[in-house]
C-alpha cells in the first residue's frame, strides 16, 4: 500500500518534487495512528488540523509533523558480514517515542493551528518557592498586625478607649484610670 500523509495540506507520499522542505526525502517515514491507545489517538486527532477527521487503520502521518525530539534513532545492523568501518553509515531506524504527538503543521492555515502558548513562569512551580512566598506573605501580615497593635506612643486615655471599644475583651474585665471606670 502506498503511504500518503493524512495531515492538512501535506503532500508527502505524492509524486511531487517539492514534497520535503528539508531536501531529505528518503528520511521521511510514515507512522500509523495509535488506534490501540484511545487517549493518545485522541491527542493525535486533536493535533491534526483537519475538521471531522476519523482515522482508519490505513491512516498515516509523515515524520515532517513531529519534532526531532519525538524520535528515537537506533543504529542496528543485523548483517554480521557487513564492513563496519564504512563511512556511509545510513543503517539507522527511527522510531517514534511512545508518547509522541504530532505538533508541526506548516501548511495548515493559522486559524486551524493551535495558538502557541507562552511558557509558564517558574516562580511558583516548586513547593519550596511556594513555601517561601507564603512565609513572606505571613511576615508582611504579622508586621501590619504589630503596627496596628503598637500602643507604646499612645496616651493612656486612648489606650483605655481602645480597650473599652474592643470586642475581644473578656467579660468582667474593667478598665480603671485614675479612679475613673471606662
Task: Explain what the structure shows.
The protein is an alpha+beta fold and 182 residues long. The protein has two domains: 1-113, no CATH class; 131-181, no CATH class. The protein is 24% helix and 11% strand. It has three helices and six strands; from the N terminus they run βαβββααββ. The chain has helices at 38-47, 127-149, 156-165, and strands at 30-32, 60-62, 71-75, 92-96, 176-177, 180-181. The strands form three sheets. Strands 1-2 form a two-stranded antiparallel ribbon. A two-stranded antiparallel sheet has the order 3-4. Strands 5-6 form a two-stranded antiparallel sheet. A hairpin with a 2-residue loop joins β5 and β6 (180-181). The chain starts with 29 loop residues before the first strand and ends with a strand.
Secondary-structure blueprint of this entry?
Blueprint: E1 30-32, H1 38-47, E2 60-62, E3 71-75, E4 92-96, H2 127-149, H3 156-165, E5 176-177, E6 180-181
Antiparallel strand pairs: 1-2, 3-4, 5-6
Structural class: alpha+beta
Largest sheet: 2 strands, antiparallel
Radius of gyration: 35 Å
The helix/strand order is EHEEEHHEE
Number of domains: 2
Number of strands: 6
Number of discrete helical segments:
3
Strand content: 5-15%
Fraction of helical residues: 10-25%
Q: How are the strands ordered across the major sheet?
A: 1-2
Low-confidence stretches: 17-25
Q: Give the overall average pLDDT.
A: 78
Shape: rod-shaped
How far apart are the first and last residues' alpha carbons, in Å?
98 Å
Amino acid at each position: 500500500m502506498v503511504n500518503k500523509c493524512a495531515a492538512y495540506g501535506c503532500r508527502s507520499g505524492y509524486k511531487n518534487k517539492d514534497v520535503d522542505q528539508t531536501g531529505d526525502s528518503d528520511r521521511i517515514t510514515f507512522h500509523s495512528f495509535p488506534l490501540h491507545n484511545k487517549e493518545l489517538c485522541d491527542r493525535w486527532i486533536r493535533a491534526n488540523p483537519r475538521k471531522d477527521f476519523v482515522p482508519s487503520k490505513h491512516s498515516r502521518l509523515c515524520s515532517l509533523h513531529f519534532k526531532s525530539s519525538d524520535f528515537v534513532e537506533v543504529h542496528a545492523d543485523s548483517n554480521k558480514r557487513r564492513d563496519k568501518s564504512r563511512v556511509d553509515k545510513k543503517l539507522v531506524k527511527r522510531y517514534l517515542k511512545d508518547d509522541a504527538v504530532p505538533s508541526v503543521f506548516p501548511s495548515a492555515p493559522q486559524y486551524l493551528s493551535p495558538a502557541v502558548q507562552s511558557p509558564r513562569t517558574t516562580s511558583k512551580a516548586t513547593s519550596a518557592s511556594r513555601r517561601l512566598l507564603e512565609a513572606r506573605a505571613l511576615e508582611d501580615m504579622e508586621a501590619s498586625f504589630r503596627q496596628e497593635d503598637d500602643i507604646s506612643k499612645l496616651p493612656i486615655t486612648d489606650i483605655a478607649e481602645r480597650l473599652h471599644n474592643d470586642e475581644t475583651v473578656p467579660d468582667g474585665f474593667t478598665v480603671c484610670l485614675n479612679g475613673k471606670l471606662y
